[in-house]
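for the writeup, i need someone to sanity check this before i put it in the appendix. the sequnce is what the collaborator sent (i think, or maybe the updated version? ugh). structure was predicted straight from it, no edits. if anything looks off just tell me and ill rerun, i have time this weekend
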Amino acid sequence: MSAVRPLRLVVVAGTATEVGKTWVACALARELRGRAVTVAARKPVQSFLPHDPTTDADELAAATGEDPLVVCPPHRRYQVPMAPPMAAAALGRAPVRLAELVDETRAGWPSGDTAVGLVELAGGVRSPLAEDGDGVDLTRALDPDAVLLVADAGLGTINAVRTTLDALGPLAPRTIVHLNRYDGDDDLHRLNRDWLVTRDGLTVTTDITDLTERLRGRVPGAPAPGAGVSPAGS
């Protein structure tokens, strides 16, 4: 049987590296599965240190109950902490091509119905994923129903979110911003959240439960139900 696109396809992007994309994606997957929602995750390409105990794909697989080598196939794992096309070159392996990543991701879903499919990018959205494309290019090619943009909650958040949304272009209206590591007792965190909502009109969450509800209700091109400020969370 051929692969079938998930009923709701979500690209998990970040404003930068190390903002917690994988942690948020795993928490979201576990929350959905806890509600009896079928979830699959894909990491089209990844690079990492050789001595890392686990990779992003391994963590995603643990959260979704899948095989890590299905989440990210062996030939898309590069044991050098560089952008994937750079890592491939450093290891003397074949160049990474955007069309290949797109085709592999589209063909990699389970053959049965999957309610939510999560595709986690590597690095920020303008980080190179292939010799001829970055996270924005892959996201546009996949045409997701929603983009989950993970951002830090502290200093520099507003600029990072705005810059990323500018890069996403026509996909910006489909984006939900999740402020990771949000502390409701931190004045700057609260002010950043409020500014993004009231000044920029964005859908912002700070809590995985609230994020889950909003993503479940998201349809292509439509605003999330109840757009606005979410309850404070961790």
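Residues 84 and 129 are 6 Å apart (CA to CA). Residues 21-34 form the longest helix (14 residues).
thx in advance!!
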